[in-house]
Amino acid sequence: MPRSGRQGSVVGQQYEQSLRQPKEGMEAPEDPASNEEIALAVHKSVAAAVELSRKYRHVAWYSAFVAAYMAVLYLQANAYKSGEVVATLKATFMPDGESTMTFQSESDVLAYLGQQVVLPIWTDPVCGNGICEWPWEFAAWGSYGCKAGNADCGVNANTTQIVVGVRADFTKHPSIAARVLMSNAVWNLCLEDDARRKRGQADLCWYDHDQVFTDTLVNAIFTMTVIDGSWYVVVKGDYAGLVSGAVYDLANTTNPAKVPTTPAWSTCQPAATVSPTTTAMRRLLQAYTQAHQVGGEAGSKLMTDAIAEVQSMPKLRHVDFAKYRQLLQEGKPIEQRSGSAKADPLPTAEGLAP
């Protein structure tokens, strides 16, 4: 057997040179361990010793931490303060000094806890007490916040005056009645507030209730003084996309700057093309209704303007409205009506067909 190298055996060489003697009653091994086997055994022994040392260090550090933690608890312990806490809890849960209490049902338990613990401790903020209880109270702006006296949280000075223009024409839909579309649409202006959303609260809006439309044709402006932040327009029920608008900053009152909205607050373009006859009939019927609401010469002018507008349509220029203008000029001023009434002569759909 070789005596050097990985496969050699230093132990066998020592036995041959009588440098190593077998134990009493035993003989020298015929096939002693090789140098490689001896190195692996030494490596395993060293690794086991290192791992055992690491575990002992961990135990020592943990023991030191527990000892330090117990020392801190001992230094912080105060029997007098602990007694005060226990006495306070007893006075809260058992105000009459009783040691036991009996309840007839679970509802009695919940009612007792609500009256003795919940309501006295978790109270709602009181407006006007001079204490700003954030986040339930905040600097007042618009119709929100406490404004009694000097206002608990003061008044928010970071405000901007804006103008919101709202436009709608519910008569443009080719098949759905304008009143139906109008009655479903509402709008509002709301402040995006992540803090309120995390607390489970809804965003604050300028109007407490969404604003409804009261006419099929709307072109109105609304002035608001809003706080700085990210605002968004809420439009609900506008199924035909007929409500549009714009927001202007009044920092420069002589030349208000338009505030861009993303996406653009505009109407939707209808996919279907409305025939000129349908458009003309809708315009004349609308003018007819408005004329009888106004009455008098103003009502006659509304009808005259509507007829002129219809005749100016390229595909209806061939229609002769002379007899209808003559009826308006020769007849009496249009009477103001509040209920159903017999209609004045109007062009029929057949008469308008190209």
Tell me about the biggest sheet?
A: 4 strands, antiparallel
Order of helices and strands: HHHHEHEHEEEEEHHHH
Terminal-residue CA separation: 119 Å
Radius of gyration: 45 Å
Helices and strands: which structural class? alpha+beta
* Number of distinct beta strands: 7
Give the percentage of residues in beta strands.
Answer: 5-15%
Q: On the 0-100 scale, what is the average pLDDT?
A: 80
Rough shape? elongated
Report the helical percentage: 25-40%
Order of strands across the main sheet: 4-1-6-7
Number of H- or I-type helical stretches: 10
Uncertain segments are 339-346, 348-354
Explain what the structure shows.
With 354 residues, this protein is an alpha+beta fold. Helices cover 40% and strands 13% of the residues. The strands form two sheets. A four-stranded antiparallel beta sheet has the order 4-1-6-7, with no helix packed on it. It starts with 9 loop residues before the first helix and ends with a helix.
Put the structure in a nutshell.
It contains 10 helices and 7 strands. It has 354 residues and is of the alpha+beta class. The longest helix has 42 residues.
Salient structural properties:
3-stranded antiparallel sheet; about 350 residues; elongated; about 40% helix
Write the layout of secondary structure elements.
Layout lengths: L9 H7 L18 H42 L2 H15 L12 H16 L37 E11 L8 H7 L1 E6 L2 H5 L12 E2 L4 E11 L3 E6 L6 E7 L7 E3 L16 H19 L1 H16 L10 H9 L18 H4 L2
Helix pairs in contact: 7-8
